[in-house]
Amino acid sequence: xxxxxxxxxxxxxxxxxxxxxxxxxxxxxxxxxxxxxxxxxxxxxxxxxxxxxxxxxxxxxxxxxxxxxxxxxxxxxxxxxxxxxxxxxxxxxxxxxxxxxxxxxxxxxxx
Amino acid sequence: xxxxxxxxxxxxxxxxxxxxxxxxxxxxxxxxxxxxxxxxxxxxxxxxxxxxxxxxxxxxxxxxxxxxxxxxxxxxxxxxxxxxxxxxxxxxxxxxxxxxxxxxxxxxxxxxxxxxxxxxx
Lengths: 111, 121
What we know:
Chain A is an all-beta fold and 111 residues long. Chain A has no helices and nine strands. In chain A, a hairpin with a 5-residue loop joins strand 6 (61-64) and strand 7 (70-75).
């Protein structure tokens, strides 16, 4: 499986934007870039995914580099409830394959 | 909003005892996954079902772990005998609504339950 590299931890002030980076230099043409997050004492939850174009939804935005070797998850206005571990995962989007999680980025929000 | 249900939420057992975890996926989801998450790490797949059939159990320690999904709906994961190293969070997830009913957002999205935290003493 192609691997991703994320910083172990990041901090951000409440109500400010947060940019969470992810490197995936060995991404294949069929890999989608998925982001999940895991709040304390909960199971992971889906955040967003994309293939080539930037994506927006009510939770976040995903900016994908033109060469697809990196991406950035953007939380536009972080709240205390966004404190979680964020996982960047490469996933073939057909066939219900397993998700391969790394260790993710632990995001701390400072009030 | 429909959710994946798991029970129990917490389980404490002694080594060599048997434990069982239950998962009820979102209605209509054909694919069910059991993941194990060791503290400080990301979840790792133990077993994946498509309906009642196992499609991937390559990482399941089959000498002590078993999983079943007899009617293709809910599922049970069993450990017998439990060992100290089995202490972890056990997560169930489901995906794939019935074909033709989901949009782009739902396709391939995995929905996770709250997990069962196991402590083996």
